[in-house]
Specification:
Strand content: under 5%
Shape: elongated
Number of strands: 0
Radius of gyration: 20 Å
Helix content: over 70%
Structural class: mainly alpha
Number of domains: 1
Distance between the termini: 16 Å
Order of helices and strands: HHHHHH
């Protein structure tokens, strides 16, 4: 590898690291502004969702964009880690599946449900019908969020296993093992639900790994 090529690849890794850290921090801020609906009465829920619709769409739109940036950063991460290694390839495929599922969950929560509420508010239809459709939509949201959490955890686990073979990166592997196993085990054991609170906890756990991986890229340690 020529010095020019190595310098270009190092610069690309630093950019990806900066993007990863920045996207992670903004994701946490966005989750802190994630709206929730407290009303159990269908009519009141429609009104509350309508009031918070703009914020919900903004937060979920930002989160979707940030997930795209994180996928880009981890594409560079996987390349630096060794794209020909099976564990690295498995990790990237799992991460891509996880991001796709999370984007689907965000679309349902931020756009499908708000559009349903707007339709029923404008039509003046029976709010009980909205309740049934919203329940179906949120069932899909939860299924996608669970798939996303497990797939991303599997990706971090695969990358951590790949990192364990290198003593210089073992600290990052340990961070990854903890960040991958805790959310998945908590979800499977029923300790958390992927509501706003549970999803925030998952985002924070993944953020620890993201920031660690991001700084490894910025410092040229990969």
């Amino acid at each position: 590898m020529s010095a020019v090529t190595e310098t270009a690849e190092s610069a690309s890794a630093r950019r990806a690291g900066i993007v990863l850290v920045a996207a992670t921090v903004v994701s946490i801020v966005a989750m802190a502004h994630h709206p929730s609906v407290g009303s159990h009465d269908p009519g009141a829920a429609i009104a509350e969702i309508g009031t918070k619709a703009t914020l919900s769409r903004l937060v979920h739109g930002v989160l979707i964009a940030l997930m795209g940036l994180e996928l880009y950063a981890f594409a560079v991460f996987a390349e630096r880690l060794g794209a020909r290694r099976d564990a690295v390839r498995i990790g990237f495929v799992a991460y891509a599946i996880g991001i796709g599922a999370m984007i689907g969950a965000a679309l349902i929560s931020g756009f499908v449900v708000t559009s349903l509420a707007a339709h029923y508010a404008d039509a003046g239809a029976d709010p009980s019908a909205f309740a049934n459709l919203a329940r179906l939509a949120m069932t899909g949201n939860q299924a996608l969020a669970q798939l996303g959490t497990i797939a991303i955890s599997a990706a971090i686990l695969a990358w951590s296993i790949a990192l364990l073979h290198d003593r210089a990166h073992r600290w990052l592997a340990i961070v990854g093992l903890a960040a991958s196993m805790l959310p998945a085990l908590a979800l499977v054991a029923g300790v958390i639900r992927l509501d706003v609170t549970g999803m925030t906890l998952v985002v924070v756990a993944e953020a620890v790994w993201n920031v660690a991986a991001g700084f490894a890229l910025i410092r040229g340690k990969l």
